[in-house]
Specification:
Protein name: ABC transporter, ATP-binding protein
CATH class of the domain at 9-69 and 139-227: Alpha Beta
Radius of gyration: 22 Å
Structural class: alpha/beta
Mean pLDDT: 89
GO molecular function: ATP binding; ATP hydrolysis activity
Pfam families: ABC_tran
Largest sheet: 7 strands, mixed
Distance between the termini: 48 Å
CATH architecture of the domain at 9-69 and 139-227: 3-Layer(aba) Sandwich
Keywords: ATP-binding, Nucleotide-binding
Low-confidence stretches: none
Order of helices and strands: EHHHEHHHHEHEHEEEHEEHEEEEH
Helix content: 25-40%
CATH topology of the domain at 9-69 and 139-227: Rossmann fold
Shape: globular
CATH superfamily of the domain at 9-69 and 139-227: P-loop containing nucleotide triphosphate hydrolases
InterPro entries: AAA+_ATPase, ABC_transporter-like_ATP-bd, P-loop_NTPase, RLI1
């Protein structure tokens, strides 16, 4: 059912270790499905026979005959320097065959990094490079494994818009994502994965974005009347927030400035309380970590 949808983005959501990345590897032809036969994995003819009559039979046949190309943005972008050497520009130029390299470079804010060696890139820069590397290639299937990791809010939205640009009548686009806001923005349909991390995972049928996200949060599949998590995930603001703040400690910090080379951080005086969570929101490189230090 993962491949019943074209001209749309299919989002996959689920806890860590439940099989999302494994599913992408299987669909990319990098991992052969064992059909649950761990001790005696079947050969490809048996696998194709198992999926006979379904779209997956045709899909795997095309993969085996090299008539279908799948590109995958890996989950662990920090491992890219081990597999690729060269500058950002040389690697993108080598793979680019869609005629959109310059536009993708601008969208992913890579123009200032073109002469940088891959091993010199930070986590966020590697993430943007990896997304761009997928988007400049001609392929039938585009898969993005956690594309928002290391990116700030602005960069996440830019990446999401670029991924949606990959939609075409002859292509599939699949995204694994934990950020529910990005998943909501990106996806047209959602599959939830549930099970026991590191043991087994089950993929639900595709559902609408709102229904799919609510299904994941509720831990309950209404169409099957089945609960896969004991407790629902809820985000509620305490109705007694003011009373809680009065009972907790209050800490103040003075106005300050910090110069790091050509970068200057200016902080206005403020305060915070314990027993509460404060979110520092801003683009990468604007001084959030410097302020904490």
């Amino acid at each position: 059912m993962l491949f019943s949808l074209r001209i749309q983005v299919l989002g996959l959501v689920g806890t860590n270790g439940i099989g999302k990345s494994t599913a992408l590897k299987v669909l990319a032809g990098k991992l052969k499905p064992n059909l649950g036969k761990y001790d005696a994995p079947p050969d490809w003819p048996s696998i194709l026979q198992y999926f006979r009559g379904s779209e997956l039979q045709n899909y795997f046949t095309k993969i085996l005959e090299d008539n279908l190309k799948a590109v995958v943005k890996p989950q662990y972008v920090d491992q890219i320097p081990r597999a690729a050497k060269g500058t950002v520009e040389s690697l993108l130029t080598r793979k680019a065959d869609r005629g959109n390299r310059e536009q993708v470079q601008r969208d992913m804010e890579l123009d200032g990094l073109l002469q940088r060696q891959i091993e010199q890139l930070s986590g966020g820069e590697l993430q943007r490079f990896a997304i761009a590397m997928c988007c400049v290639q001609k392929a039938d299937v585009y898969m993005f494994d956690e594309p928002s990791s290391y990116l700030d809010v602005k960069q996440r939205l830019r990446a999401a818009a670029l991924i949606r640009d990959m939609i075409a009548a002859t292509t599939y686009v699949i995204v694994v994502e934990h950020d529910l806001a990005v998943l909501d923005y990106l996806s047209d349909f959602i599959c939830c994965l549930y099970g026991v991390p590191g043991v087994y995972g089950v993929v639900t049928l595709p559902s609408g974005v709102r229904e799919g996200i609510n299904m994941f949060l509720d831990g309950f599949i209404r169409t099957e009347n089945m609960r896969f998590r004991d407790d629902r995930l809820s985000f509620k603001v305490s109705e007694q927030l003011d009373e809680v703040i009065k009972r907790t400690g209050n800490f103040k910090y003075p106005a300050m400035t910090k110069n790091l080379g050509t970068f200057k951080l200016s902080v206005e005086a403020g305060d915070f309380s314990d027993s509460e969570i404060i979110v520092m929101l801003g683009e990468n490189g604007t001084g959030k970590t410097t302020m904490i230090r």
